[in-house]
């Protein structure tokens, strides 16, 4: 129903699409599949190389020149591995799941614009398989179908780790899809269309990354969450879940999951380029020098460069950032990204409405800044007056004491709990001072320096040393 | 409707590729039976029992899915408004601000009730 609504309202001009002869359509479709396969082959080698450099290693260099044939070696290895189907698995769904995961990741590329109209064997046709009035909605819908592949694989494996990995994967994809969708809405506001070719056409003068920096930022964070990549690779957190949803997979079934992951990385990079980085358009300095940069087949170069920048960004993140904890990850998605993008969308809408009403720039800026300031002051007043403070000067209620052996096995402290002080022998000077105090107390009679009446003086010295060691630990934790 | 046909073609190509690789890998690989190999993965301990057709999982995932539906539908409502924003004018803006405020109340409620906490 919503699709029909959007189609009626999104009256972008996409009438140029859908008139290709069948053989041009077939060429384009095959070209997209080949392009993606080559890109993935490159991505696997490039990722291992870059991560290797970041870790002061060389990376693959045995297979072919510069290790370029590494992907073929990997694919060959997977083809020659035993195709296991574990005992508890739902056999049909186990085989179906990787296919369900990979097909939508290919299909999303049907509406990605690679370039403007070119002449192909005597026909004028755009470098884009097809376009819809609801192009971006189609991409969202198709990539969401890919989630089924991951959750089904976890469900069908009949094993604990894959089940949790599949659930995590689906929960994280849907959580970040909301923030992602909100950042799209701001783009539609400016482009007036959901069709990808129209959005690229609307960025002829200014790329949306300059107009909508907050949307861009939210999208970039959300796209990493969507693709299950580091630092949000919680579904495959090998420290907790072995390998997540793909634990029980082997051979090419596993390879198909990898293929889907890499294609998804390219897909979100392509959507990022289309929505915020001008699609296939050349960056500003090049267009001023060279007028023909945006016509013919050349835009393909800019588009591929933008894709590769996106890919490098993913690899860079993987090489530098540690993995998030799951609660931190969910908190970021639901409590930070969604409110930020919602408020930003409202701000953008209000400013654009003022502009449509013909207000001067200065007046718009004044009202906007004033409005934001008033909101901030209101929030501050609200915070100061209505915030419920627990008794004890704003300190939160004390957490239950940390039990390092809860449930009979060693556990780490939960958020809000502190590690108990490590019992440690006090430095010699302190021990000597404590002994001196003890001797004094014995001769003097009453023991007053010890508030809670600790029986042994040596213990007091040990405790004071332990206190210093805990504060030191606390500071360390804050630094991280 | 003609512009939807290429999507179908691409889908068939992709599905064909995926099915051929998965099936052919099952044929090219070796088959060596080993009872332990077919057990579900556990690191060296007895496998925890999983009923056929999926096991139990934390209710939080279910709650997340419900919240997703609520907010995703909100976003889908925002799209047509955003696309025809210039045509709707101030009326559209005010209407949508009211709508966003309504959804925001639900969001604040969920937040306050701890629906967004993931302990």
Automatic annotation (TrEMBL), chain B:
Entry EC no(s): 7.1.1.-
Keyword annotations of the record: Cell membrane, Membrane, NAD, Quinone, Translocase, Transmembrane, Transmembrane helix, Transport
Catalytic EC class: translocase
GO molecular function ontology, one term from the record: quinone binding
GO CC annotation terms, alphabetical: NADH dehydrogenase complex; plasma membrane
Annotated compartments: Cell membrane; Membrane
Primary localization: membrane
Stated name of the protein: NADH-quinone oxidoreductase subunit A
Species in which this protein is naturally found: Mangrovactinospora gilvigrisea
């Amino acid at each position: 129903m919503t699709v029909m609504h959007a189609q009626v309202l999104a009256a972008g001009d996409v009438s140029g699409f859908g008139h290709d002869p069948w053989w041009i359509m077939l060429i384009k479709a095959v070209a997209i599949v080949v392009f993606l396969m080559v890109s993935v082959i490159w991505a696997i080698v490039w990722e291992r190389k870059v991560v290797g450099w970041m870790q002061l290693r060389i990376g693959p260099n045995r297979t072919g020149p510069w290790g370029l044939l590494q992907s073929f070696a990997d694919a060959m290895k997977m083809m020659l591995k035993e195709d296991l189907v574990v005992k508890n698995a739902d056999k049909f769904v186990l085989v179906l799941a990787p296919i369900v995961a990979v097909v939508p990741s290919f299909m999303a590329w049907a509406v990605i614009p690679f370039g403007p109209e070119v002449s192909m064997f005597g026909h004028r046709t755009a470098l884009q398989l097809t376009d819809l009035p609801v192009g971006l909605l189609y991409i969202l819908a198709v990539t969401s179908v890919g989630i089924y592949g991951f959750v089904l694989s976890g469900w069908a494996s009949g094993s604990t780790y894959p089940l949790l990995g599949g659930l995590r994967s689906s929960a994280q994809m849907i959580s970040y899809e909301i923030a992602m969708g909100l950042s799209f809405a701001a783009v539609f506001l400016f482009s007036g269309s959901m069709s990808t070719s129209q959005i690229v056409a609307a960025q002829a003068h200014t790329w949306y990354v300059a107009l909508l920096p907050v949307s861009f930022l939210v999208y970039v964070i959300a796209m990493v969450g969507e693709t299950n990549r580091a630092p949000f690779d919680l579904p495959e957190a090998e420290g907790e879940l072995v390998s997540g949803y793909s634990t029980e997979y082997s051979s090419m079934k596993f390879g198909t999951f990898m293929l889907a992951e890499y294609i998804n990385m390219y897909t979100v990079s392509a959507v990022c380029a289309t929505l915020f980085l001008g699609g296939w358009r050349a960056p500003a300095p090049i267009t001023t020098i060279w007028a023909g940069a945006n016509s013919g087949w050349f835009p393909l170069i800019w588009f591929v460069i933008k894709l590769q920048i996106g890919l490098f960004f993913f690899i860079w993140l993987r090489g530098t950032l540690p993995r998030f904890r799951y609660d931190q990850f969910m908190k970021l998605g639901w409590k930070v990204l969604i409110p930020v993008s919602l408020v930003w969308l409202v701000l953008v809408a209000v400013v654009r409405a003022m502009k449509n009403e013909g207000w001067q720039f200065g007046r718009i800026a004044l009202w906007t800044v004033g409005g934001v300031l008033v909101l901030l002051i209101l929030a501050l007043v609200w915070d100061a007056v209505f915030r419920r403070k627990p008794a004890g000067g704003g300190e939160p209620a004390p957490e239950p004491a940390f039990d390092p052996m809860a449930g009979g096995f060693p556990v780490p402290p939960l958020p809000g709990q502190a590690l108990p002080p490590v019992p440690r022998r006090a430095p010699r000077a302190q021990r000597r001072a404590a002994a001196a105090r003890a001797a004094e107390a014995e001769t003097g009679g009453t023991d007053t320096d010890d508030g809670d009446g600790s029986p042994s003086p040596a213990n007091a010295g040990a405790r004071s040393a332990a206190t210093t060691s805990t504060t030191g630990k606390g500071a360390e934790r804050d630094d991280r | 409707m003609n512009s939807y046909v290429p999507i179908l073609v691409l889908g068939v190509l992709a599905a064909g590729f995926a099915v051929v690789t998965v099936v052919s890998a099952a044929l090219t690989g070796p088959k060596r039976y080993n009872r332990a190999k077919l057990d579900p993965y556990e690191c060296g301990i007895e496998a925890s029992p999983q009923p056929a057709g999926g096991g139990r999982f934390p209710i939080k995932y279910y709650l997340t899915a419900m919240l997703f539906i609520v907010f995703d539908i909100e976003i889908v409502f925002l799209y047509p408004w955003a696309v025809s924003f210039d045509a709707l004018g101030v009326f559209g803006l005010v209407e949508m601000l009211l709508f966003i405020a309504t959804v925001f109340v639900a969001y604040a409620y969920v937040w306050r009730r701890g629906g967004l906490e993931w302990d």
